[in-house]
Specification:
Layout: H1 5-17, H2 20-27, H3 31-45, H4 61-85, E1 94-99, H5 102-115, E2 120-125, H6 128-136, E3 142-146, E4 154-162, E5 164-169, E6 180-181, E7 189-193, H7 198-210, E8 216-221, H8 223-231, E9 236-240, E10 250-256, E11 264-271, H9 278-294
Parallel strand pairs: 1-2, 1-3, 6-10, 7-8, 7-9
Antiparallel strand pairs: 3-11, 4-11, 5-9, 5-10
């Protein structure tokens, strides 16, 4: 009795995701539909593929054997898609991109649109933790993330490196120096991002290593709010250099005197299982080009 391809696809996604909810989101289908397809597969072949229906789902012996086969099946299917779609343009297609770095997102979109005119693009901005969650839940096609955690389900292509700079009012006394020694922050009010921010984490690590404690700190969440606060003279703040747009009210200087240099590294992150798709291959090729330009 021939197996139904859609039923196998449903099983494969559920097995990889460990549950129906995440699998349904990945495949962009309704949960009841996916559950029915799994049930139909088991009933048609008289086998239980999971030990129970409680999440996280655990594969039975038969389920583990089938997963090994479906991994080969869908890998081969992806190879077929690649072969047939090698010359297919992405024009008219769509890209959902998540990023924790606005300038890098803009660079990626500019290259993508230039190479794929007529395509549609949706960009979601968040911190690195958020964009990686969106990618894991298949809410986006790819992520630009700073120092993302290593995970075997993703591919990582180096995109950029960055370092901390200090933002201060354009008439601040510190503008007379070419750099801002980190020791000077002991006499300043430091404006900081939310606790999950990479910028805040790097700033706090640098301060701790240098044993420097600012006079005061103000948590103002977003980059935009902090820039306005700097311009109004409420304090100074650390930004990565790519996040320092021209503003006549604000001056930027490299942060110096660090105990150890810790450059921020940004990556284009994609789902491993989609690495052969035309869209992901196009994005990864752009990442290589942008990475070379950055160096």
């Amino acid at each position: 009795m021939a197996a139904n391809f859609q039923h196998l696809r449903a099983f494969h996604a559920i097995a990889l995701e460990g549950g129906v909810t995440r699998a349904a989101r990945r495949l962009n289908v309704a949960q009841p539909t996916l559950s029915q397809q799994l049930k139909a597969l088991e009933e048609r072949h008289g086998v239980s593929l999971f030990e129970s229906r409680r999440s996280p789902l655990k594969l039975s012996n038969a389920g583990r054997d089938l997963l090994a086969l479906t991994e080969r099946l869908f890998s081969a299917a992806a190879d077929v898609d690649d072969m047939l779609g090698e010359a297919t343009s992405l024009a008219g297609g769509s890209l959902r991109l998540g990023s924790d770095c606005p300038p890098q997102a803009a660079r990626m979109v500019a290259h993508f649109r230039r190479e794929n005119p007529g395509s549609t693009v949706q960009v979601r901005m968040g911190n690195a933790r958020q964009v990686m969650r969106w990618l894991g839940d298949s809410e986006i096609d790819a992520a630009i993330a700073s120092d993302p955690p290593a995970d075997g389900q993703f591919t990582y292509d180096p995109l950029f490196t960055d370092s901390l700079w200090m933002a201060m009012p354009s008439d601040h006394a510190w503008t007379q120096a070419e750099t801002t020694p980190i020791a000077w922050l002991a006499e300043a009010t430091l404006l900081i991002r939310e606790p999950s921010s990479k910028t805040r984490a790097f700033t706090e690590q640098a301060l701790a290593a240098a044993e420097v404690e600012p006079t005061d700190t103000l948590e103002l969440q977003s980059r935009e709010t902090i820039r306005e606060a700097v311009a109004l003279g409420l304090g100074v703040s650390a930004f990565f250099s790519s996040e320092c747009p021209p503003d006549p009210r604000i001056a930027y200087r490299p942060l110096s005197g660090l105990v150890r240099e810790q450059p921020l590294r940004g990556y284009l992150v994609c789902q491993q299982e989609r690495r052969r798709s035309a869209l992901i291959r196009a994005l990864r090729a752009i990442a290589v080009e942008l990475g070379v330009d950055a160096n």
